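User: ok so my PI wants both of these folded by tonight, can you help

Assistant: No problem, let's get them done. Here's the first:
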Amino acid sequence: MATRTVVVALGALLLAAPAANAGEAMEHSGRILSDDQTRHTLTIEEMGPWYGPSTKAVRREFHLAPTTKVELAFRKPKRGGGWGEFAVEPFKASDLRLGDYATVTLAPLGKKLVATEVSVVRPTGGSGPRPARKTAGATPGKSVGS
């Protein structure tokens, strides 16, 4: 009888867990594929759980509200060389670029999910929110002059 009670209690907990999380924020992270300013959408390519060699990245599209907070995260250079602490600065959605790595935080708004925050990291080095520059003839992954 005690075993049956434990099984029923665990079953009730498992069924209640998705309902408890339904109103909570969730996050998705990946490489930006498109930023449609007209439709107010952001599309990323996210790699989900690994199921073996046939696992593929998933495209996810999110609605950006006028209140969506967009920020650029970067490492501050340390005086005397090296890397300092992480910093975050406000960023405009119009400054998002293809290839930026973004974490999108979503929250329910009525019956749909809306991006409340987009945190961006630029794949190129650099020390701060300055736009990444593309140098003619540069090879991705190599520094100019090497």
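One down. Here's the second:
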Amino acid sequence: MGWDGSENSPRVLVFTEYRHTQDALAAVLAKDFKLKHSDKFEDQATQTLAVIHGSVPEIITTLFTIQTIDALFDRPIFVTTNFVERSGVPKASAKRILRALQDKGVRMAVRESSGRRPAILMFRELIALAEGQS
């Protein structure tokens, strides 16, 4: 894969709908491609193959789980209105989902809302792993 640990090294981020599936997939990929792999969170940033810990279905149970995952991966830095448009999730449900994700530490505000200016939100763990940070 050509991974040397630099910022420009390619990375494989494993994120599936369920935690058990992503752990199993990561183990198989590591074995088949002879990649060093640990499932410990603190090791993720230093590996070619990284697993995003904690899947969305473990945090939220909704009919909109797949749409939520797709929207977060499509644009991990967003405002609520963009999330609603991209995901197709009704606004009230989207706000409830985003609040649940915030409560579990999956997303965070980059900029808090102020008056008519919306908050800018970020899928923190995806950004950190993509940048090789823990």
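Residues 12-55 form one domain. The helical segments are 19-32, 56-59, 65-74, 80-87, 91-103, 124-130. Good luck tonight!
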